[in-house]
Every structure is written in structure tokens, then in C-alpha cells.
């Protein structure tokens, strides 16, 4: 990896529809993906709600942007860290989240999971390892 | 801003993108292409339809490099490259084709 | 005097729900909507507090559950799922509405 590649992490801590943060973060991630950096996304606190499957906004007249998370793999954003404790505190588990995958270019385009459930301690280590953090 | 087709008005933003995705009909693409001095062929329509399907599935207009990769996967390598796509859409396969398809400006095009 | 309390913030991010529960008296109603619906998911600290609250009726707005991908079987027992029309009639039936924002 060349020296001018930095580790960028987007920190998502908000639920999807009550505020604009989640959608704004997703747009910035997609735009920022053009810069060929080492990008990862962290979902903790209420941010874990962004990935809950089966979202259907027809009844509240808002854009359902949950399908856009499926496009992250196309944008080479393949590391989505979800904190285990945040899920558990909210009565959720990995089974409640959308299955998100990417195709690994270095492994004959094998389909792999983008979501990695990590403990709070692991998340702290991953954050420590980043060069730049963007908070939403 | 707006474009007129057979007396019907379609609202667009300052860059010429359709304001309401649901307003789109093939005539919109034809009219926009005419303004750009372009005749739409089956090859153009293949990409325009591909973009509309992409938006339907992911709720975003893909950036040009994402579009190129996705076209290659779906329609074959000979179409999934910038040379082919720029030949069809000289103002940029992301921006111009998305505009014809009634989509917003691509997310991730700078 | 009966009161309809409304909560539209996540109980995990803001103290709105906790404050609401501290002030809601027996005979009153609490309606969770928008991000407030996350307080209705069973098996959390929030639903424990709701279960411990005697004499208060709890409601959650169905369209906001659907928007956020929370299926009805995830909603804790004792919380009634309502539509917009029921929201309006709850507001009309009670003497006043107190919003916890």
C-alpha cells in the first residue's frame, strides 16, 4: 500500500430517518470513495439501526435509502464494522441486519460479507488504528 | 427550468436534470438528446435502461467508474469500458446518460 | 385530566423517554413515533421500564416501525401498534398532549 493512502473511518451513531445524519454520511462515503483511500465504516450506538433489514418507508413519505448500502461494494467500500454491544443493548443481532456483500477482486471475485460484528474493545482498537475519523 | 414535449412540461434543475424521477418517459431522453445533438440508438437505450434499473435497485445514480464496472459485468467487457461509453455519451456516461435516464447527478462524480 | 405523552426520540440517544416515564401518571397514555419507536423493541432496558409502569397505556406508530424495518413481532407485549388515524383519536380523546422532544 502506497504511503499516501490513509485510513479513513466514517463513524455512524444516528438512527436513519429521524435526522438527516445517516443519509448525509452515506452520500459523503460514496463521494469520498473516488479518492482511493482505505475506507471503513463504523456503526455503533443508534447507528446500528441504519442496517436493519426490511425497511419500508412508503407509509411515512420518505426516501428509503437502505438499498444504497448494497451499492457500497461497487464503490469498493467493503469494511462495515458493527458493534456487538450496541446491537445487544437494542434487542438486535446480526440476523436483524441486511446481508451486505462485496466481490473480492483479489480472490477471483468471491462474494464476501461486508458486515463484521466486533466487540466494543475491538472497535476501540480499530478506531485507534485510523488516520482520519469523520463523525456523523 | 423545464423542457417541453408535445405541450407537456417537465421541470428540470439548473443543470438540466429532471426534478421528479417519476415524471420520466422515453420522450424526455429523446428531447434531451436532441438538445445535445445526439441521435439515440439501441446502444444508448441499453445504457439508459441499465441506469434506470440500477437506480431502482440501489436508489442512487452510480459514479462513472462504478457504472463502467457494472456495465462490464452485466453487458460484457466490450461495453464496460470508458472508450465505448464515452463514444455513446460524449459529455460523460455518468452525467449525460444519467440526465437522459431522468436520474439525479451521479453520487460520487466530482 | 388525562394526558397523551408523545416521544419521538430514541431512548438510547436522548433522555426524552426516561423523563416521559418519570412524569407520566396512571391513566395517561404514551405514544412512541419517529425514532421514539426504538423504545418499543422487546428485550431492552427501555421495555423493562415500560413493563414496570402500571396504569399507563403504551402505543407505537406502525408506519414508523415499518419505515425502520422493525417487524410487529419485535414489539414488546403490552404496547399497542396504531395507525395515523388512531394517533389522531388518541390526541382528541385525551385532555391534552404533552410532547417529549
From TrEMBL, chain C:
Q: List, alphabetically, the GO terms of the cellular component aspect.
A: sulfurtransferase complex
SUPFAM superfamilies per UniProt: DsrEFH-like
**Superkingdom, taxonomy of origin:** Bacteria
GO biological process terms, alphabetically, are:
tRNA wobble position uridine thiolation
Q: Which Pfam families match?
A: DsrH
What PANTHER family does the annotation carry? PROTEIN TUSB
Protein name from the UniProt record? Sulfurtransferase complex subunit TusB
Organism (species): Candidatus Thiodiazotropha taylori
Q: Which gene encodes it?
A: tusB
Amino acid at each position: 500500500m502506497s504511503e499516501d493512502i490513509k485510513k479513513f473511518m466514517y463513524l455512524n451513531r444516528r438512527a436513519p430517518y429521524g435526522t438527516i445524519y445517516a443519509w448525509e454520511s452515506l452520500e459523503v462515503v460514496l463521494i469520498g470513495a473516488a479518492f482511493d483511500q482505505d475506507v471503513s465504516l463504523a456503526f455503533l450506538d443508534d447507528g446500528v439501526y441504519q442496517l436493519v433489514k426490511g425497511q419500508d418507508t412508503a407509509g411515512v413519505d420518505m426516501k428509503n435509502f437502505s438499498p444504497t448500502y448494497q451499492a457500497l461494494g461497487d464503490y469498493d467500500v467493503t469494511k462495515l464494522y458493527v458493534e456487538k454491544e450496541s446491537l445487544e443493548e437494542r434487542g438486535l443481532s446480526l440476523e436483524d441486519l441486511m446481508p451486505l456483500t462485496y466481490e473480492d477482486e483479489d480472490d477471483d471475485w468471491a462474494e464476501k460479507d461486508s458486515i463484521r460484528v466486533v466487540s466494543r474493545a475491538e472497535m476501540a482498537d480499530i478506531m485507534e488504528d485510523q488516520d482520519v475519523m469523520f463523525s456523523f | 427550468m423545464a423542457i417541453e414535449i408535445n405541450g407537456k412540461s417537465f421541470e428540470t434543475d439548473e443543470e438540466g436534470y429532471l426534478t421528479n424521477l417519476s415524471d420520466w418517459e422515453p420522450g424526455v431522453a429523446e428531447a434531451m438528446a436532441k438538445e445535445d445533438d445526439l441521435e439515440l440508438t439501441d446502444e444508448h437505450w441499453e445504457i439508459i435502461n441499465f441506469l434506470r434499473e440500477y437506480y431502482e435497485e440501489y436508489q442512487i445514480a452510480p459514479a462513472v467508474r462504478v457504472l463502467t464496472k457494472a456495465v462490464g459485468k452485466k453487458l460484457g467487457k466490450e461495453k464496460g469500458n470508458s472508450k465505448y461509453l464515452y463514444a455513446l455519451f460524449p459529455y460523460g456516461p455518468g452525467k449525460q446518460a444519467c440526465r437522459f435516464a431522468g436520474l439525479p447527478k451521479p453520487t460520487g462524480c466530482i | 385530566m388525562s394526558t397523551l405523552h408523545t416521544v419521538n426520540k430514541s431512548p438510547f440517544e436522548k433522555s426524552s423517554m426516561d423523563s416521559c416515564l418519570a412524569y407520566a401518571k396512571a391513566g395517561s397514555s404514551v405514544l412512541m413515533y419517529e425514532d421514539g419507536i426504538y423504545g418499543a423493541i422487546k428485550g431492552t432496558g427501555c421495555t423493562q421500564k415500560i413493563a414496570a409502569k402500571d396504569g399507563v397505556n403504551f402505543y407505537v406508530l406502525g408506519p414508523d416501525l415499518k419505515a425502520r424495518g422493525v417487524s410487529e413481532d419485535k414489539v414488546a407485549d403490552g404496547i399497542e401498534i396504531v395507525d395515523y388515524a388512531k394517533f389522531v383519536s388518541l390526541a382528541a380523546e385525551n385532555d391534552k398532549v404533552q410532547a417529549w422532544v
